[in-house]
Amino acid sequence: MDRLSKNILAASGFSSISLNSGVLELLFDQMSDVVFFLKDHLGRYVAVNAAFVERHGLKSKSQVLGKRPVDLSQGDFGIVPTQQDELVLRTGRPLLNHLQMHWRTFQSSGWCLTTKIPIRNAEGAIVGLVGFSKDVKTPSKRNEIPEAMARALSHMSDHLGEQVTPSALAKSSGMSLARFTRLIKYMYGVTPVQYIVQTRCVAAAYLLVHDGRSVSEIAVECGFQNPSSFSRTFRKITGLAPSVYRGAMAQKGA
Known about the structure:
By secondary structure, the protein is of the alpha+beta class. About 50% of the residues lie in helices and about 20% in strands.
């Protein structure tokens, strides 16, 4: 990690992770199909991997540090990730396996799954975020991912209280259920039904820790038909009932 990165980290209030960020940077430098990034509380890059630099047509990591996505890329390639960063930093809610477009090579784009997780200091304040975007390579030309699919999955994640089925998602994605199922299995390793359930449970897990509403209210917001269904499904996936999970995470100071 260079001096500029260390200065940005210190000014952002999370210098305690500076050593770890250097390790992460070195680790992700070995991955050509993954773009890694670490950002401060204003969404400015503190560390990136070699793939990030190459895909943006830059010569060194120093050209990225201290900037935001909107400072490096025009149009949606700059605006969308900047807006995502602002939302994660403002709400503390992570972005997990979000299907979107990113640079594959300089001036050549492709699909990826993006994850962004907020970083908190010892007092619990959000001081930055860490994340990565992993290339999604479809098994054949016939199975190219349509933009409508990304929009359908994003809409589902943003409206979990709405009841949705694999058939409805496939229709919104502009494809047959068979093709939709094939792509979901390829990208996420689960069936569409499992994907829907996992998405609901991940959102519920976050709310149980960071939201003071009752388990029943969280169940409704995340699209479960009733508290009993929520408890049964959540326990099956996490091994803990919602109330037990909330208590356990509170003890850990999550």
